[in-house]
Amino acid sequence: MAEGPESGVLAEGPESGVSLPPPRPLDAIDLDILQMLQADGRASIRSVAERVHVSRANAYARINRLVEDGVIRGFGARVNHERAGQGTSAYITLKIVQNSWRTVREQLRQLPGASHIALVGGDFDVLLLVHTPDNRSLRELVLTRLQAIPEVLSTRTLLVFEEEDLEPQG
User: Which residue has the higher pLDDT, 77 or 90?
Assistant: First the structure.
């Protein structure tokens, strides 16, 4: 059986090598559960059940199914990076060697402060969001760590002045 929201265990997905079942259609109750858990990942099964008007057993089964199906990838905290000592944020665009995405992705995952990695189409290949303590740490990350990856052809750093989390708030 899948772990519940209190466990903090992430669902497996394509990047982990574990295959997921084909997606099932979500009904209005599933969508309500998702919205509630996005706003408060620590919501109890009881409060979820009451809010969506189903039994606790039904709510528990639905959440487990959403985890098993890979709809819910995990449960975590939304962090204020500045208050957590990571006051400098930047988006870094990378041009990489053709067909090196998987290799580069694995190396980017290891970078301290890497928060989001996306393979994109356009003028560059990869978009990377990082959070670092200060500009000196950001400089070190870009000039020493990123540019040392052989498959990275070029980088461009976009300093973030202000950011806002648009996910539902509790």
Answer: 90
